[in-house]
Specification:
Elements lengths: L2 E4 L2 E4 L4 E7 L5 E10 L6 E6 L5 E3 L7 E6 L4 E6 L8 E11 L2 E6 L3 E6 L1
Parallel strand pairs: 2-11
Antiparallel strand pairs: 1-3, 3-8, 4-5, 4-9, 5-6, 7-8, 9-10, 9-11
Length: about 120
Amino acid sequence: VQLQASGGGLVQAGGSLRLSCAASRTVFTINDMGWYRQAPGKQRELVATINTGGKPNYGDFVKGRFTISRDNDANTVYLQMNSLKPEDTAVYYCYADLAIGTVDVDNWGQGTLVTVSS
């Protein structure tokens, strides 16, 4: 499945951005969808994931600032980011867990850059 992310950009500290990620049509079941991020010189880390039932899972650093949501009919996941900080600057990668038979396959989008200026 192809994942097309959008919504990144440059924002001042304290501002907001909304990321979107749409998965292409597939005959397979998409389980969890979500976002990871990677800042320069750092490892990729969990931002948020959401299952098909709408239950979210957030990285510890989010602390109520971000909200993940999902449209199952459209195979699209959203990330509303508020109160952004310079340390949120990173490439944000869309993620989808695809069930192919009994195997779960991780799928990644191309990444969208979020830059938060101080």
